[in-house]
Design goal:
This protein has 752 residues and is mostly helical. The chain has helices at residues 5-27, 32-42, 56-77, 80-84, 88-111, 116-126, 131-141, 147-176, 182-212, 219-239, 244-255, 261-285, 289-294, 296-320, 325-334, 340-352, 359-391, 394-407, 415-453, 455-479, 485-493, 498-523, 528-544, 546-573, 607-610, 612-616, 651-663, 670-675, 696-699, 741-751; strands spanning 590-595, 619-625, 628-631, 644-649, 678-684, 708-713, 734-740.
Amino acid sequence: MSQLTPLISDLALILICAGIMTLIFKKLKQPLVLGYIVAGFICTPHFKFTPSVVDSASIHIWSEIGVIFLLFALGLEFSLKKLMKIGGPAVISACTIIFCMILVGIFVGWTFGWGQMDCIYLGGMLAMSSTTIIYKAFDDMGLRQQRFAGLVLSILILEDILAIVLMVMLSTMAVSKNFEGGEMVYSILKLVFFLILWFVVGIYGIPLLLKRVRKLMSDETLLIVSLALCFGMVYIASLVGFSPAFGAFIMGSILSETVESEHIEKLVAPVKDLFGAIFFVSVGMMVDPSMIVEYKVQILVIVVAVILGQTIFGTAGVLLSGQPLKTAMQCGFSLTQIGEFAFIIASLGVSLKVTSHFLYPIVVAVSVITTFLTPYMIRLAVPAYQVIDKYMPVRWRRLLDRYSSGASVVNHSNNWKKLVTAIIRIVLIYSVLSVAVTALFLHFIVPLITGMLGDLWGKILGGVLTIAAIAPFLRALIMKKNRSVEFKSLWSDSRFNHAPLISLILLRIVIAIGFVVFIIENLFRASAALMVGIAILLVCGMIFSRFLKKQSIVLERTFVHNLRSKEIQQEYLGEKQPEYAGRLLDRDLHLSDFQVPEESSWAGKSLKELDLGKKYDVHVASIIRGKHRVNIPTGDTCIFPNDTLQVIGTDEQLSAFAEVAEKATHTYDDEDFEKHEMKLKQFVVGKNSPFIGYSIAECGIRDKYHCLVVGVESAGEDVLRTPQVHAPFKENDVVWVVGEENDLNKLFTYSY
């Protein structure tokens, strides 16, 4: 027990400080990340007024687990399909920003005379903006509905992905101490290979596993299975030379494509918040005031470099992607901070012992300053645009307008581009699968078989099994897209297309033959001609095999179904935005969701009564209600609490609509609740009562006085009867009534 005491006391101190700081920063409406950093500083010996952490090594291990959970949760929010749909503007902008900011960081570090690795790691830290901070800033400022906000969030998604790749490259640099040549190329190829392998195998196998055991899954078992898969991938990633955080992100992104992703995300959130808090507290523990004072000039220079660099290159990148100047400046001004990935990259440098001791506290200080400045920079974007637009030469303005309008024109891909792109994707995926299966059989299965059957027969059987295992992949590699619409169209368009199309098929056949030759050559000693001849015969058999054709089709359909299962479920539940939403952006319109609060005054009213189209120039395209979607609702369609309205309009129209929708919420004070309290009382039907001889319905007790008769006692009886609507009241009847105080008083006054 004595061994656990330091850890328990340290965790108690950390969580108490973190809890207090989160409350304070929540009250101040500041990001909680900053609260955790301040809490970490309080837990160090540098702060004399509180106890300090005793066993910092254990806390460091917990913080590494926190990084794993943070990236696992980030992966759960990430979607491969979402990445594919991000589009050119976000890709161009993100790549421009990251490349230029890395150069800015390297240049700043070089001017200070820092070491090579310090400069490179500083560039990586400055390249990544904070998704958490920007998301919260947009929420607090009511900018989530703006068009530029969607583009900023798309850029941040891509930056997060590129940050993972950057972490892998930085790790390779740190280990190899080599910044050029074959080592870097090898690491990139290995990264691409394992990414494709893990995604394909994961998306094929994991949804099937979860589907089979769905009936056995409670919240507890689903959480345990998810974390088991996460840490399993962490172990595999570490085994092949990648960082544990990278493995966690990969598993999170695989699980994000399953129908259970949202459920898993909710279950993991508390665990992620706990360990994430410990990580950010450990970041704060690295803050040394004396070091910050010593390096105050460098900190200020880096702050200026981040703000100016992100503003200039962010604006330039978005402009380059074809967006208007106003949108570009709003995006650039929104990205002027560094956040969680800077800390993760900094901790990576510390763990690999390749960065100097001063770099971590400097980055923390820069992050704190830029985070505080973020809301002001976002607000400054529009005034800055107005000034630039006012003094910009007319020729420049026309040039920018012409460029943005030209870039937004849809570029229809020709058939050659579609076909070649599809074939490259097919060859890459199936080649990776074939390499992985071949390596598995040659290194594990074949030695096992040869040990049981002897060398010759073991190799023969092992070779047959290996080739049989990759045969469905090789057939798909050869035959996919040979009967596609693009292939047929190109074949019939011109006879000059025949030779290139046949060449594409032959090239894929050669690749398949190469795989078979490689397997035979690794198992047997034979002449090249004999191996090639056998390989050709086997590949021809694969091409004409109906069984392999069926197998490859089943494999592909299963994979596509698993990949689209979440999307199919969202369509069924009415959670997915319609396809036309993306096309509206070209017309300066977009579709946005608004949830009707429970206390909204709109609840219970029809669209005709609200008249939203005439009042606010917006159109309600759909109403999502629970698990159902009402498309193109009529004027008679009523709105209910917790409905989600899908509304079409411009940025200005949607902002005005959102403001009105928020103001339409009822507010209640204590007196309101007291007035509406329901009470049970009774009155006696007197001799002169106007209710004598009249039934409940005729008296209008419910309609006129908003009261409910729950029972009647006849004179001389001691039994409370269920009220009969059409039975007349008699003298001395005791009537039991439920209603609000004011309504009951009005009823009693009239009844006497």
